[in-house]
UniProtKB/TrEMBL annotation:
This is D-inositol-3-phosphate glycosyltransferase. PANTHER family: D-INOSITOL 3-PHOSPHATE GLYCOSYLTRANSFERASE (PTHR12526:SF510), GLYCOSYLTRANSFERASE (PTHR12526). Keywords: Glycosyltransferase, Transferase. Its EC number is 2.4.1.250. SUPFAM superfamilies: UDP-Glycosyltransferase/glycogen phosphorylase. The keyword Isomerase does not apply. It comes from the Bacteria.
Length: 413
């Protein structure tokens, strides 16, 4: 069977999702085509996640709308959506697939409920198409008539789209989508946000591997280090909290930094950088270095100021048995509280954040994971992700299902 994966973006977790999906599909003996942007195909993220994958037919496409001053594809706004639509259409005509996956479907999920040639083509040719959603207006409870009307519109567009299966990584979103209609209920599934296994190394070995000082306690932010992650709030809170911390406590920024963060480090925090109280691994980290950065830590910090949705770093911390200090909003707040993964506070309040940061660091050695933490981590394993996302494809191929976990159905019920 010829399978098309359409993913033009390479920022964030996009290509990591694609790599895991490719692995799951290729084990079924399918002919796998990846339609992506030429920028993504030339990126270091592509080399890390997909460079060594054999028998993957890559179709690099031109014409995607870019963010100004970067190679990142713009997926929102009229120009971004039009370029996605054009790229998707060209990929369908080139590959002529039997089955399609869209691993990051949010930018097109509403638009494809409107009349368009891609939806018509998919339906007319009975091409089963699976959509993965990471967020949406229906992801958390809404207040006010206007917000509820927008939610209803989004759900109606989702229902009218050409999707055979809809996968969402937020349990509440699955419940809301499923309650909208029997049609959506029949095609919507919960999909865990997958995290890779951590390297089997201790804290000192991890610090040696990534080249940071062996002493002190590390407060770590991981992934892309940028404004939307709350890095400026973290750095300010750390400076304020210094009198209540040990002399060798440090902040570790493990990941490639944006230009505004680099500027802040050089101008506002140069003293702390020089004394190695702030350490920036300002590069795209491969899987080993990323996992080692987690293992090197004493506290994981996720102060994302406006992020309502899943954060795989929280899951990674749970796998490492580390406490998390996160912002008290959305999925991060709910998950940390439910599974006793650490502490939440209003990280947009400088005084509150600084106080809770010092408390969290000073009590990090006393952290004990909850009894059911292994169950939570296993739910988000890569194997579970691949099993659930390829379930319909296996069914079409007549391949016996693997060990599909009941945990996912319970999580979304």
């Amino acid at each position: 069977m010829r399978v098309l994966i359409f993913e033009p973006q390479h920022a964030g977790h996009n290509l990591a999702y694609v790599s895991r999906l490719c692995e799951g599909v290729q084990t079924l003996g399918c002919e796998v085509h990846l339609a992506t942007s030429r920028q993504a195909a030339a990126s270091e993220q592509f080399e890390q996640h997909l460079g060594a994958r054999r028998n993957l037919r890559v179709l690099p496409l031109d014409g995607f709308h870019q963010r100004a001053g970067s190679g990142v594809i713009r997926v929102n706004g009229p120009k971004g959506v039009r370029s996605l639509h054009r790229g998707f259409w060209n990929a369908l005509q080139e590959v002529k697939p039997d089955h399609v996956f869209v691993p990051f479907g949010n930018p097109i999920s509403n638009w494809y409920g409107l009349p368009n040639r891609v939806s018509r083509y998919l339906k007319a040719n009975q091409i089963e198409t699976e959509l993965v959603l990471l967020f949406g207006r229906y992801a958390y409870p809404l207040d006010g008539l206007r917000s509820r009307c927008k939610q209803r519109y989004a759900l109606s567009m989702l229902q009218r789209g050409p999707w055979t299966k809809i996968h969402h990584i937020l349990p509440h979103a699955v419940r809301v989508i499923s309650s909208f209609s029997r049609q959506l209920q029949a095609k919507t599934n919960y999909l865990p946000d997958p995290v890779d296994p951590l390297p089997s190394i201790d804290r000192q070995q991890a610090r040696q591997l990534i080249g940071v000082p062996a002493d002190g306690r590390y407060i770590t932010m991981m992934g892309l280090i940028e404004e939307r992650k709350g890095v400026h709030q973290l750095l300010a809170a750390f400076r304020t909290a210094l009198p209540n911390l040990q002399p060798n406590d440090r902040v570790l920024l493990a990941g490639k930094a944006s230009e505004d963060v680099r500027l802040a480090l050089s101008e506002n925090y140069a003293d702390l950088v020089a004394s190695q109280r702030i350490i920036a691994l300002d590069r795209h980290l491969d899987g080993q270095a990323f996992g080692a950065s987690c293992c090197a830590s004493n506290l994981i910090c996720t102060p994302y100021p406006r992020h309502q949705y899943s954060a795989s770093i929280v899951i990674q911390a749970a796998a490492a048995g580390l406490p998390v200090l996160g912002n008290a909003v959305g999925w991060i707040d709910e998950t940390i509280r439910t599974y006793q993964l650490g502490t939440t506070c209003d990280t947009n309040d400088p005084a509150c954040f600084a106080k809770q940061l010092s408390i969290a660091v000073n009590t990090s050695d006393d952290f004990t994971p909850a009894a059911d933490i292994d169950q939570f981590v296993q739910r988000h394993s890569v194997d579970n992700f691949k099993t659930l996302l390829t379930a319909r494809l296996r069914e079409r191929l007549g391949v016996e299902a693997g060990n599909d976990s009941l945990l996912e159905r319970r999580a979304a019920s």
